[in-house]
C-alpha cells in the first residue's frame, strides 16, 4: 500500500499517467497525501486527543444535532444510490459480470464519475459519527471495528475514484449507499428518544445486512479473476480484499455483541429468571 501511494504522488510515473484525467483539479484528487493526513488525524483525535479533551468535561447532549445529521446522511446516501443506480447498475447498460470504465464525457459516464467522487467525499462526513461519540463520551462505542472502518475507507476509495471511477468496482459504492440509507434511518429513529427506541429491536439484522454487503461485494469483485474483462484487476483485488477485511471485522463484532445475548436467553438460569419475573 505504501508503494502504491508513493508511486501515485510522482506526476511522471507510469501509474500516475493512467489516472482518470477528468478528475484533474478536483479537491483532494491531486495526491493521496491529504486523504492520508486526514485519516491519520482522525485516528489521533478519536483515540487520543478527543478523549483527553473530554476527560474532565460533561458529555454534550447532541440529540437534535444527531437527528439533523442522520437525516442529512439519509438524503446524501439516497441521492448517491439513485445516481449510481439510474445511470449505472439499474440502467440496463451496466453488466454485473463485467463492466469496463466509461472514460468518455457523455452524460451517464459523467454522472457516475461525479457520484463516485461524492461517495468518496461522503466518507469524510461519516467521520462525524466518531466525533459525536467523543463529545457524548460514548468511548465504549469507539471500537477497533469502528475506527478501522471509518479511518480506512477514504484511503480505500481514493485510488478507485482517481483511476477507475465507474465500472466494475463502483458496485461497492452502490451497495454501500443502500446500506447507509437503512443504517442512518435506524440511527435517526434512535435519536428520537426512548419512546421510539423500544421499536428498534432489529439492530442485529442491520448488522447482518452490512455483513451481506461484504459477501456480495467480494464475490462481485473476485469473479473477474475467472473472467476476461477490460477492467484493471488490481482494483478488484484492492476493493475485494478490503471487503473481506471488513467482513471478518463485522463477523467478530456480531459474535461479541449478539451471540452472548442469545446464550444468556437460552441458558437454564435465564429461563428460570424469566419465569420468576412473569410470576411476579
Automatic annotation (TrEMBL):
This is Elongation of very long chain fatty acids protein. The keyword Membrane applies. Its EC number is 2.3.1.199. Keywords: Fatty acid biosynthesis, Fatty acid metabolism, Lipid biosynthesis, Lipid metabolism, Membrane, Transferase, Transmembrane, Transmembrane helix. It is found in: Membrane. Pfam families: ELO. Signal peptide: none annotated. It is an enzyme of class 2 (transferase). Its main location: membrane. GO terms for biological process: fatty acid elongation, monounsaturated fatty acid; fatty acid elongation, polyunsaturated fatty acid; fatty acid elongation, saturated fatty acid; sphingolipid biosynthetic process; very long-chain fatty acid biosynthetic process. GO terms for cellular component: endoplasmic reticulum membrane. GO terms for molecular function: fatty acid elongase activity. It comes from the Eukaryota. It catalyses: a very-long-chain acyl-CoA + malonyl-CoA + H(+) = a very-long-chain 3-oxoacyl-CoA + CO2 + CoA. Belongs to the ELO family. It comes from Daphnia sinensis. It is a multi-pass membrane protein. The chain crosses the membrane at residues 25-45, 65-82, 115-135, 147-165, 171-193, 205-226, 232-254.
Amino acid at each position: 500500500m505504501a508503494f502504491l501511494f508513493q508511486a501515485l504522488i510522482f506526476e511522471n510515473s507510469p501509474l500516475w499517467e493512467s489516472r482518470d484525467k477528468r478528475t484533474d483539479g478536483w479537491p483532494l484528487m491531486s495526491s493521496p497525501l491529504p486523504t492520508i493526513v486526514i485519516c491519520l488525524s482522525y485516528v489521533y483525535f478519536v483515540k487520543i486527543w478527543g478523549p483527553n479533551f473530554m476527560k474532565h468535561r460533561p458529555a454534550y447532549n447532541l440529540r437534535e444535532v444527531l437527528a439533523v445529521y442522520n437525516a442529512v446522511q439519509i438524503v446524501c446516501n439516497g441521492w448517491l444510490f439513485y445516481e449510481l443506480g439510474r445511470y449505472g447498475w439499474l440502467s440496463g447498460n451496466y453488466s454485473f459480470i463485467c463492466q469496463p470504465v466509461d472514460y468518455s464525457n457523455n452524460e451517464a459516464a459523467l454522472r457516475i464519475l461525479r457520484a463516485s467522487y461524492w461517495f468518496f467525499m461522503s466518507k469524510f462526513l461519516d467521520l462525524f459519527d466518531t466525533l459525536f461519540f467523543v463529545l457524548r463520551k460514548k468511548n465504549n462505542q469507539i471500537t477497533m471495528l469502528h475506527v478501522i472502518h471509518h479511518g480506512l475507507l477514504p484511503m480505500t476509495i481514493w485510488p478507485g475514484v482517481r483511476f477507475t471511477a465507474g465500472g466494475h468496482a463502483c458496485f461497492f459504492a452502490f451497495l454501500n449507499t443502500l446500506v447507509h440509507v437503512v443504517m442512518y434511518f435506524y440511527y435517526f429513529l434512535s435519536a428520537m428518544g426512548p419512546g421510539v427506541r423500544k421499536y428498534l429491536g432489529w439492530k442485529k439484522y442491520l448488522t447482518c445486512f452490512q455483513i451481506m454487503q461484504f459477501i456480495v461485494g467480494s464475490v462481485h469483485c473476485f469473479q473477474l479473476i475467472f473472467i476476461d474483462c477490460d477492467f484493471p484487476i488490481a482494483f478488484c483485488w484492492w476493493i475485494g480484499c478490503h471487503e473481506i477485511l471488513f467482513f471478518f471485522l463485522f463477523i467478530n463484532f456480531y459474535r461479541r455483541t449478539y451471540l452472548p445475548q442469545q446464550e444468556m436467553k437460552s441458558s437454564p438460569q435465564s429461563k428460570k429468571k424469566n419465569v420468576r419475573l412473569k410470576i411476579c
